[in-house]
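A.,

Following up on our hallway conversation. Structure tokens first:
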């Protein structure tokens, strides 16, 4: 590859080249020396990059590997640059299927395809395995691709840490959820027995315990769900559902543990969607629990549903303090807590998970709010 450099005059100053325009240039020897120094500097920078860089010519032959690339491929210093034919590395997709040598990132670039943030499982000839993230570009001359440049980043340690984090959160969630489920079940039985015996004060105290346990359960669910979303393990299982029936069921269950006045406004005719039922329920529960959390005790919270040919709209409206205009653009971001949420319980994941769930279904979620006048959240899903 040829590089052009803009360099300053060498010591001794420019010289007249005798041209009619009186242009000045460096002596030939000085020009060559400066070009050599610039090329050596560029080579040194490339050689010492922490990212692995591989340059392949139009025939698919490796013409350059920097130090990081040689270490990644297991090529010894001074060893000839082998063709990109799979003899050095065995490359596979993350699902274990092999990538043929003609589908290596560099060869795909030479065919005019795009390589951007593609992750591969790589096995060296010594049997060691690692994962890399590939990005590439091409160098063209007269419109023809002459070189493909691929940059690889070793993400093995990063992925191991992510998996360790996921395993830890998964185990923690499981260990917490089991006793919490038992606590909620026993608390519900106790509340009913106390109510039957006329011990209303004790029954209300038990209901407070149940509400706290339900909030803890929601936080654990949000944490687990966010981990699945971020790790790419998020899978939705769609089936035909009546959104009206889903909303009625969620609200009826929420009334058991909520001190708010839950009002439901749902049409008598079915509103059909094709969706993952439990995940849609989680979205509605998150919106409902959010409204209860920020509304005065006993205040009205309205859950309504409307639909047309294109979408089903599920709306949760409260009479809480509203959302500050500065918080509105960020309210669906991960771990974001607005001014009104300062000091309240929760991880700041409920709305984030709800947004990603809605988007995974091809829908949207939004909010309208005026400080002091409450908030209205709307989940929109494609109608069947």
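Then the amino acids I'd put at each of the 384 positions:
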């Amino acid at each position: 590859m040829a590089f052009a450099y803009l360099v300053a005059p060498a010591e001794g100053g420019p010289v007249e080249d005798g041209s009619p325009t009186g242009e000045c240039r460096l002596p030939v020897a000085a020009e060559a020396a400066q070009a050599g120094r610039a090329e050596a500097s560029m080579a040194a920078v490339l050689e010492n990059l922490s990212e692995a860089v591989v340059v392949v010519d139009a025939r698919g032959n490796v013409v350059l590997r920097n130090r990081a690339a040689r270490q990644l491929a297991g090529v010894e210093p001074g060893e000839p640059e082998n063709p990109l034919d799979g003899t050095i590395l065995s490359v596979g997709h993350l699902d274990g299927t092999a990538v043929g040598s003609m589908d290596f990132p560099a060869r795909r670039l030479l065919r005019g395809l795009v390589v951007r943030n593609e992750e591969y499982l790589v096995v060296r000839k010594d049997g060691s395995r690692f994962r890399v993230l590939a990005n590439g570009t091409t160098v063209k001359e007269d419109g023809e691709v002459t070189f493909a440049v691929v940059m690889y980043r070793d993400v093995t340690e990063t992925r191991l840490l992510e998996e360790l984090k996921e395993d830890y959160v998964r185990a923690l969630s499981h260990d917490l959820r089991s006793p919490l489920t038992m606590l909620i079940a026993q608390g519900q039985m106790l509340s009913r027995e106390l109510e039957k015996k006329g011990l209303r004060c004790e029954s209300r105290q038990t209901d407070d315990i149940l509400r706290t346990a339900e909030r803890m359960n929601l936080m654990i669910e949000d944490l687990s769900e966010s981990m699945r979303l971020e790790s790419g393990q998020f899978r939705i299982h769609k089936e035909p559902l009546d959104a009206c029936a889903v909303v009625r069921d969620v609200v009826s269950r929420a009334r058991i543990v909520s001190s708010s006045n839950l009002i439901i406004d749902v049409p008598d005719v079915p509103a059909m969607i094709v969706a993952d039922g439990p995940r849609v329920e989680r979205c509605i529960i998150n919106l409902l629990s959010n409204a209860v959390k920020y509304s005065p005790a006993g205040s009205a919270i309205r859950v309504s549903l409307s639909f047309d040919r294109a979408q089903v709209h599920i709306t949760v409206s409260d009479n809480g303090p509203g959302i500050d205009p500065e918080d509105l653009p960020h309210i669906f971001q991960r771990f974001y807590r607005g001014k009104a949420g300062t000091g309240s319980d929760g991880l700041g994941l409920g709305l984030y998970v709800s947004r990603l769930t809605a988007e995974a279904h091809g829908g949207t979620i939004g909010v309208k709010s005026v400080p002091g006048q409450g908030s209205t959240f709307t989940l929109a899903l494609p109608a069947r």
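The chain has four domains: 1-48, 52-154, 157-234, 238-384. Curious whether your intuition agrees with the design.

B.
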